[in-house]
Design brief:
The protein has 203 residues and is an all-alpha fold. The protein has a domain of 121 residues. 75% of the residues lie in helices and 0% in strands. Helix 1 runs parallel beside helix 6.
Amino acid sequence: MNKSYLVLLFISIVFWSCNDDNQKQLEAQKIAQKNEAVFKNISKIWAFQFPEAVPEIQTKLRSWNDWTQFENEMRQKPKATLLAFKLKSKNIAIKSDTLAYSVPFEYNNPQVLSRIKAMNTKIKSLETFMNLQIIPEQKVAKLIPEINEEIAGIYKQWHEIIIKKAIPKEFGEEHMLKAFDTTRNATPKLMLEQMKGDNPQIK
């Protein structure tokens, strides 16, 4: 084979190799610049809000470990990289998943559970968007205030429970409810004894 041809072939290979490396470097720089821009934009909108609760709710929440961990995770804002935001969204979703299974008895009703489920669904959507190759910033920007609305809705449901609990019961209602709760699983004999105790005229 002609020696000059081999030299030309070698030069061509080196040229295309260098050109390919330069192209890859340019693409890497563009991706880095894009990620930096996304990081700055996400940092501006990443803010989760927890309403100020009345003392009775605050006391209950302090003893609810899963909620405390969830709230702490939400309040800690990533500061370093876009990857930190991606990991944060996963951690939030994991902690949100546990809430419905550990709701304190007093706050465990269909309205509260429905709110928690709605919040959890939106948090999972946030996790999905944050871990896409190209993050849809507008969708993320729309989701964050919606998640805050769901959090506020949960607090509102808890507050309604407190208000209803504080409303005085009508005369005789508490005794009736207590008797019903005590005797609904009792034997007929025990029920009769209970009734005699309430009304001596019963033989």
